[in-house]
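In this section we walk through a basic example: taking a raw amino acid sequence and producing a predicted 3D structure, encoded as discrete structure tokens. The instruction is simple. Fold the sequence below.
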Amino acid sequence: MGYPDTFEGFMIEDQKKWTEFKKQEFKPKMFGDHDIDVKIDACGVCGSDVHTVTGGWGEATLPICVGHEIIGKAVKVGSKVTTIKVGDRVGVGAQVYACLECKLCRADQENYCLRKVETYGDPYEDGTISQGGYSSHVRAHEYFAFQIPDNIETKDAGPMMCAGITVWSPLVRAKTGPGKKVAILGVGGLGHFGILFAKALGAEVYALSHSPSKEQNALGMGAKEFIVTSKKDWAKDWAFEFDFILNTANMTNTFNIQEYMSTLNVNGEFHNVGLPDKPLPQIMAQDFMPNAAKMGGSNIGNRPEMIAMLKMASEKGIKPFVETIAISEMGCKEAVERVKKNDVRYRFTLTEYDEVFGKRE
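The resulting token sequence is shown next.
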């Protein structure tokens, strides 16, 4: 049938065959008054995509088209849309809908709305399953589409839509800024954004990593010091040091969490945004007592935070480390395989969408 009745995407049909992407049509939700359609030009490759296609986070509704770091051009806008016009370059992240009426939404906590719809693999109220950005188009409520500043390249803007906002939100909610000591645990796709943003916010930033090979990159991004956590007793020299640890690693299940928590200042927080496939290690209630430490986590961010993040990235010229891969069956396969193996510095963006989906004007 083709657009606007159907979209095309690279989808998997079996989580046991998670690298076998096939280009096929899918039907989007019915177009609403507040919806926009975006002709996709690029999409970042997120660790969430890999956890989903592999089944690491559980069974998915199949077939599924992943991808929630989407940049493209608005080609259709609903009759009640006020924030986007046809032709605008926009980004769509990991959420495409919320009720915008409940107490959470009214408090700018729409990313926790009970009726929220994530960008892929999530059912709308009419039963339609959302599909992501390894595709020709995405349909989203205007509240979850964001104008991209002109000086941010499309390939760089993509990863900001999930990885960027996932670290930006907890950093600003923790009041990261001058006078704060912030440690970013894990120097990868999420963690490198954490260093860039915490530095831009004015904090004193430390990078924690088990990989000494990433030291020069981390220092170049703005870390004051690089701390190798694979060394024996590494934490002893950093007792009561950090106000906030942002844990971006997805292997927390293998960590000695008590060691990391011992480096927190009194009332400091160990905050998780890396989401491993396996449960966290056992921890005792007593482990929180020596420094009144807290542990928490968060889910992406809200609209005001996304707008503020893009504004700062534009004004301060923040540029993430991004490699590009042309989208195709083999390109999708290469991207998810390499992310799975941590063989990327530090994000992938799929590009060259016109080559496989046409101009779509």
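Looking at the output, two observations stand out. The CA atoms of residues 42 and 267 lie 41 Å apart. The radius of gyration is 20 Å. In the next section we compare this with other chains.
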